[in-house]
């Protein structure tokens, strides 16, 4: 039972695509397993796994012919509850949610008048300016201390036994 040339090519292409899809499914499952059992994965590890998945998808895309775009895919599993279909296809929010939103908008106090908003803006600006002044004073003090060599780092001399005894006696290395 040998297939014809065109039929054999289609069978080989489908087999190859199925194999690649299975490999991709396995890779994604492995990533999900790693994330579930090792949530502290590092960013480079996750990025490398993502790159593998991305490359596998790219390879599958190259192998799938352009004609496949014109076919409809039928899922193997039907929706568990046919009554859910209208809910899934709905574009508007649930009527109860829309009513709650309307009630929230009605109950919401109207925007404050401009004078109250101006007072809030002025209070915010005053707080920011006082923080800026405090920061400038602290940084100026630190710069002055650095200029007068208050924060000079003294290097520790090579340790010898006599210097250690001097340090123990005087508390300094000099």
Structural account:
With 174 residues, the chain is mainly α. It has two domains: 8-71, Methane Monooxygenase Hydroxylase, Chain G, domain 1; 112-174. The chain has helices spanning 5-37, 43-63, 84-89, 95-107, 114-147, 161-170. Helix 1 packs antiparallel against helix 2. The longest helix is centred in the last third of the chain and has 34 residues, at 114-147. The N and C termini lie far apart (98 Å). It is found in: Nucleus. Belongs to the Mediator complex subunit 8 family. GO terms for molecular function: transcription coregulator activity.
Task: Give the helix/strand layout.
Blueprint: H1 5-37, H2 43-63, H3 84-89, H4 95-107, H5 114-147, H6 161-170
GO biological process, one term: regulation of transcription by RNA polymerase II
GO cellular component, one term: mediator complex
Protein name: Mediator of RNA polymerase II transcription subunit 8
Beta-strand segment tally: 0
Instruction: Give the C-alpha Rg.
Output: 36 Å
* Distance, first to last CA: 98 Å
Give the number of helices. 6
Percentage of residues assigned to helices = 55-70%
Residues in β-strands, percent: under 5%
Please name the CATH architecture of the largest domain: Up-down Bundle
How many individual domains? Answer: 2
Largest sheet: none
Order of helices and strands: HHHHHH
Broad shape: flat
CATH class of the largest domain: Mainly Alpha
Class of secondary structure makeup: mainly alpha
Which residues form runs of ≥5 with pLDDT under 50? none
Oligomer: single chain
CATH topology of the largest domain: Methane Monooxygenase Hydroxylase, Chain G, domain 1
**Residue-averaged pLDDT:** 77
